């Protein structure tokens, strides 16, 4: 029986070019495409580590997924692959805060300059584009600038795609290079749509987390690397180290389970009439906690899956300058308004924070604990 979209129309089979499709989000999209659709995935990335389990030629979908090892910065094959596809999904990004200070040029080039030819090829070849932006384009909330007595009003914190201003810190706070580059890309896409008819959807993820997110330093990433908060805290837990709370962990975030997020992406893929020309916040406003509270939730979840007592798992306050270096700054809260995606696609998140952390920490423990324990058991020189 043919699959139908939200309007009851048959969904045509598509070839989907996924730039950066070998990463955390891309790997989960690929799994969904192979398991739930008949679409073809043309995956472009510098590494296939997170999708190797899908590339086995003996698997029933092997004819529907192909991998091209490629750096889009300097590879002429990119336009050919986009021309051969019905839809391009652009996931390529540097999106780890530790890199914004130490690699600001790469952050700007990869998140803006390198996206320009992708947008150009989609426009010139009349191809649809789903582009992954970030909730960081909103920057700081209005509430963070108000006197304390006004800060309890949620209207000052809820971020709306077509209303909320984008408020960044000064230029010497290079942490904002990522948000600024992503915002410029959003504006370029919208301009190509307005002037040249580009069919686009912009996705603004609000802290999607789950298995295969980032890396564990010294195991499947550089030993001196600093991944995002979930992987940082996971690394601390696996090693029995204190979870480091940057500036006390007071910043607040909402967290969305990757499986819920992929359901939203699937709806965007299969419902172009509803998704084209739209910017979608994709998050879970019910899962808001401070980073300190996230650490406490993760300690409890990890204790359950590892049989390590919670009393042995601690937190430690560190300054942002000590952890990230000079030039660090941050947003205070990120609460997505979900009106648009619910109206257009009927999507709502379903997984509560405790459940998504249980699943994720179970994966982290099963995947990494043996390698970490082997490393820790080596005699020191």
TrEMBL record:
Annotated ranges, domain NAD-dependent epimerase/dehydratase: 16-283
Matches recorded under InterPro entries: Epimerase_deHydtase, Lipid_A_modif_metabolic_enz, NAD(P)-bd_dom_sf
PANTHER family reported for this sequence: BIFUNCTIONAL POLYMYXIN RESISTANCE PROTEIN ARNA, UDP-GLUCURONATE DECARBOXYLASE-RELATED
Descriptive protein name: NAD-dependent epimerase/dehydratase domain-containing protein
Organism, as annotated: Clitoria ternatea (Butterfly pea)
